[in-house]
Amino acid sequence: MWGQIIIALVCASEILAHDCVIPSSSQFSRASYRRYHGRTASGKTIYDAGERLIVGTWIRVVCNKDRQGDAVLKVSNHLCSAGNWSPALPVCQEYARCGAPHRVENATASERITPYITFPHQTVVHYKCNAGFDKRGTIAYVKCVDGEWTSADVICVDRTTITSEKKENTEITTQNNVRIPITTARTIPLCIEPDISHGKLVKNVTSGYYDVICDVGFKVISPKSIRCLRGVWSEPIPQCDIRK
């Protein structure tokens, strides 16, 4: 009798040794383990942590959505073979979301940007210059990578300030005494936007000057506008001070 019990225990141990277990450790907690086809024996679609499955069972591993409801990051299929999962079960990584990306002046972003919206990992935001503005720079997009945005160097500049060209008609005389009119162009350098804390510059299309608009709660310290003359701003540069 004892011999039969021992043999039965040995057989059971061998069977269990070939079973596979749904992991329960915290590093696997971001995944759900589902039946490859249909439902489990108990009628469920998802296996419980620690549940044992027999050799030959296929499961589907789904890296869960994060708390904000981002799209599923990864789906993979695995087979229980001689006590091990093949291929090995993935560890679902949690990626941080990004806050609002920086705004590009005089450009429209492909996503709505407010201080209250966050963006999931791998989100790409493109910038397009508004009508009347030309793009300068090579990278016109940013990408969210695990909580941090990549860098963009694009700026959008008013066409009237970028290349205010003055054409001059002159003539040259060739060796055959033929007078040929030619046109030369001079490009006036543009000004680099000054750093105005709590404020920004807005071009006054009527006067050609740039007015300073301060943030809420701040006021302009005279002068209220400046002008760009051949790459140099008129002095002094306006500032924004807190209202008292």
Automatic annotation (TrEMBL):
<keyword id="KW-0732">Signal</keyword>
<dbReference type="InterPro" id="IPR000436">
    <property type="entry name" value="Sushi_SCR_CCP_dom"/>
</dbReference>
<dbReference type="InterPro" id="IPR035976">
    <property type="entry name" value="Sushi/SCR/CCP_sf"/>
</dbReference>
<protein>
    <recommendedName>
        <fullName>Sushi domain-containing protein</fullName>
    </recommendedName>
</protein>
<feature type="domain" description="Sushi">
    <location>
        <begin position="96"/>
        <end position="158"/>
    </location>
</feature>
<dbReference type="GO" id="GO:0006956">
    <property type="term" value="P:complement activation"/>
</dbReference>
<keyword id="KW-0768">Sushi</keyword>
<dbReference type="InterPro" id="IPR051503">
    <property type="entry name" value="ComplSys_Reg/VirEntry_Med"/>
</dbReference>
<feature type="disulfide bond">
    <location>
        <begin position="129"/>
        <end position="156"/>
    </location>
</feature>
<feature type="signal peptide">
    <location>
        <begin position="1"/>
        <end position="17"/>
    </location>
</feature>
<dbReference type="Pfam" id="PF00084">
    <property type="entry name" value="Sushi"/>
</dbReference>
<feature type="domain" description="Sushi">
    <location>
        <begin position="189"/>
        <end position="242"/>
    </location>
</feature>
<dbReference type="GO" id="GO:0005615">
    <property type="term" value="C:extracellular space"/>
</dbReference>
<keyword id="KW-1015">Disulfide bond</keyword>
<dbReference type="GO" id="GO:0001851">
    <property type="term" value="F:complement component C3b binding"/>
</dbReference>
